[in-house]
């Protein structure tokens, strides 16, 4: 007689005990017999969940779906976990408020660890735990380790986003600011205080105003002169946050005096402080040159500061010139005067001077239709008035260079003259695009350039170097006005290639550009084209097609081997400088993905035994990337961040479950998306695969064709000759 349909045979596991094979009733799953079986007390504290796959708990709604042969695991029920953590939160709060200093210290130490758990944090916050910690800080009676653990717990709790930063009192802000402003304070306290102030500024405009009032940039500069790179990083992060949230007029004043032109009237008290403290030189000497190597987070903060600095140019970049504004027109007249004043006759008539000015403006290289009123050339945004600022700086500070460029081109034949005005305007626009002027910093980007911290007028000097490059390249290309766009493309390539070499100074940048002449750019292009295209004759194409499957299989094996080694990923939603990590790796038989949390990035191999969670490859339904990922749809801030969006991918292994990733870099993103595609039998379509395929295919082709070097390969196979009239030439061995 067959067993009833609602009775199934399953295996049930319990940590530290042998699995039990038993029959259970789908309709009435009872935990009492299981707890008795393993001598456990309190059957109401336990629940069953699936051992494999998404490890869902068995509930009233889904227990009828249990199949024969399923492996289940007895575990603490979610309700019991919440109750336990609520009880722990109440006990810790009582201990934190105890009169015994030793007991309070131990409680705060434990609280600092548990606060990272969101379930515990929710329970602790619900019983006014944050208010208690805030009062402890405001009292000013805690010092040393006790204060450090208090601030750590506070920061962890607030980082979950359960309560608003706007609820923080002004007295708390004042106390935290005092820790930052004190000349001698414990490193751990200073680090956490800087992090708390940064979070306040980034999360509340009201708190920004209070923090900016209590802690000035001048006071933060002192923390850049220490040898501790972590403190320097937190200090620059707070400076960046203050600049990012500052109103436009205050932001202009804050950074402008130390990094940009003095001609913009930046004279606030904060700007004067920066000028006295020499922010740029302190960052250069104590941060960039004083730290070797610079860690990733420090590099990111320097990149953010660089972007915010150049973003001060946005107002001028988006300001159109008013052709009727006499003051603005006088600037153009000054450009004409510096270049051609020696040729002018003060006694000439008005008509003669007008004709002469028109001729001069043409020689300056403004648009043909605007020789009478060249102010019209600056009505396009970008680059707007920023281009005129650059031209005036070149004419006044590097007058000999300016005059040489203008006169040199005005004396050429018309068809080969380089139009200075048009070139300066287009070059300014190109430089704004290369340095992302007006754009917000990208999360995770570390692409800062040390040379921009070596000069008070780095932007203007950068322009002056590049306009000379443009003039030189124009001559090397023997360009005419019809070649203008081609020249600009070459100049853009020269600049980006030189920046990619990370020169440490503007002089090094000039040196790099000297090595990137037009002929060198052509050589590099040809070399890159050859490595990508090889030959295009039919025999070569046929050989490539025969070799390609072998190369793809080699790439596939490399991707799977990398997945078996595993990678460390950053947990979503954590602060950058107090990161939480998790690790994922593929089993050696390519059948299971193992993953689990880590306290810190691993130094060596992570064993499978330490990764508590797993997903069978057979259960993976699909892999999605970018905006299709569940965590990109949920996290609006992440969704808006292009940098993060390009590194996101998810494994969908259940209609309601997904394992979400944000790769640490583009290389790991390509490795994992390729490897997962290979596991699912799908095409590896990443940029890295295309690059590796081109490289390996090119190398294999060159090796196979090595003996045919300098031999012309025919486009088609040679024709088959006609049959001979007789076969008398055949030798008969008989």
Automatic annotation (TrEMBL):
Domain of life: Eukaryota
Name recorded for this polypeptide: ELMO2 protein
Sequence ranges assigned to domain ELMO in this UniProt record: 327-499
PANTHER family hit by this protein: ENGULFMENT AND CELL MOTILITY (PTHR12771), ENGULFMENT AND CELL MOTILITY PROTEIN 2 (PTHR12771:SF8)
Gene Ontology molecular function: SH3 domain binding
PROSITE patterns xrefs: ELMO
Pfam families registered for this protein in UniProt: ELMO_ARM, ELMO_CED12, PH_12
Keywords of this entry: Apoptosis, Phagocytosis, SH3-binding
Coiled coil (UniProt feature): none
Stated role: Involved in cytoskeletal rearrangements required for phagocytosis of apoptotic cells and cell motility. Acts in association with DOCK1 and CRK. Was initially proposed to be required in complex with DOCK1 to activate Rac Rho small GTPases. May enhance the guanine nucleotide exchange factor (GEF) activity of DOCK1.
Gene: Elmo2
Any one Gene Ontology BP term: cell motility
InterPro entries noted in UniProt: ARM-like (IPR011989), ARM-type_fold (IPR016024), ELMO_ARM (IPR024574), ELMO_dom (IPR006816), ELMO_domain-containing (IPR050868), PH-like_dom_sf (IPR011993), PH_domain (IPR001849)
